[in-house]
Amino acid sequence: MLSPFMSNIERFDLGRSIRFMIYFSFWACIFFVVLSLSLPFTAQDGRPHNPVFIAGLSLFGTVFFGIWALYAWKYIRELPYTSVSLDEHGIWKTTNERSASIVPWSKIASLRERPYLQRLDLMDKSGHLLLKVEYQLHNFERLRTLVIERSALASVRTSSGQIFSKTIFHHAFTLVVAGCFTALCIYLWPIKPLLSGFTFLIVISAISWEYLKTVFKIELLTDELKIYTPLQKLVLNRSDIVSLDFSDLLKNQTRYPQVLVTHKKSKKPIVLRGLSASTFELKRTLEAWHKN
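Structure (tokenized):
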């Protein structure tokens, strides 16, 4: 029989579909590594042959997919240790003994989102990592809600001129991806001009559209919220904002936390994602500014 403080334990595990996707991703990356390595040796007769270009494309593919394969392998090795359990006193890794590994709620002072690693880090007051929580855990939304409600999170402060923005990596990554697809289409143009031209048009249009409509910076002023995209600057007054909501964008078993800003100037909410602060901290900051 469980003691009273053990009676409300909840456990969160990875689902079978997530485990399958992780193993599939690893072997898919291995396949593309082998394919990239074989590029210099598979040039067919009659195909325009540029050894430097092919070697560069082979090197890029090998490094790019090799890094993802290593990351997937590292994740596979950690699969048995991803489950977490919690009760009213704290949270701990399910594979560990509760009494020795529990992290009390009172020690959790901040949350750090790691969208590229697909996890949530629980931090103490000094910024030291206490526990890693994977986004792919089943019923993660409830898990995150419980962590937010029970942790001793530090209060937020707002100030005029406060800025949240994407890093230079966001702009550089978009440019590199667009450049790689352009180079690939140029290489394929003499062989299949219609296919390469159509692919270039579709892919570059999709990349450009996503980049141009994405908010890359917001600025908090005394009574105004300035929201920047590459195409426009939107200025909202406090009275224009209807609600601030926390949500997740789910793509191919991948979770991207975001804040939705609903306002009177448009029926469609503004999506804030991947800015310099965690989504949770950004929402709390905006709520504090909105109430002042």
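The first helix runs from residue 16 to 38. DSSP finds seven helices and 14 strands in the chain.
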